[in-house]
Amino acid sequence: xxxxxxxxxxxxxxxxxxxxxxxxxxxxxxxxxxxxxxxxxxxxxxxxxxxxxxxxxxxxxxxxxxxxxxxxxxxxxxxxxxxxxxxxxxxxxxxxxxxxxxxxxxxxxxxxx
Amino acid sequence: xxxxxxxxxxxxxxxxxxxxxxxxxxxxxxxxxxxxxxxxxxxxxxxxxxxxxxxxxxxxxxxxxxxxxxxxxxxxxxxxxxxxxxxxxxxxxxxxxxxxxxxxxxxxxxx
Lengths: 113, 111
Description:
heterodimer; A: mainly beta; seven-stranded mixed β-sheet; four-stranded antiparallel β-sheet; 11 strands; B: five-stranded antiparallel β-sheet
């Protein structure tokens, strides 16, 4: 069974640019959630996708957007990057919307200069 | 709005000690609570999941308890080892799999 994978591992972008981060969910999981973790903080919920539809969003501006594909993999897109977007971006998958355990990927470290 | 607090923020102990990490949350209407381990710069490893109907879960040297009515959970680590050094995060699920995290307890176990 393959776990949650994310790419790329690290990324350096310039303020104002756009970035796409990718996540492959664990086999059999249809729900993907994205979190942003600033240095020294706990992860903050960005949004969740369930069967290709957005299913809940945290307190993040519209320049944070996402997609989920038929194979349940997902992308996080961030437009007009700001310095404060520098963080570890974590993807988590689970087997459904109910009280299932969430499994996290290794994360993508984004640095905005 | 759910808020999660973890105490202490940092803990340093000698190898072999038993220790307790605390997590409190403000809204008791939760689906479940998860404890995670995070090594520096890495992703999260799930340690234990406690459903709202459960009181505790055990895995090896780890035991987590949940008291929903008082909004508290504890993670007990028995016979700590240097390999246990990491940041421990608790997260509550209020529904639809949106996890609300605490800021973590940074644990250092010295040989």
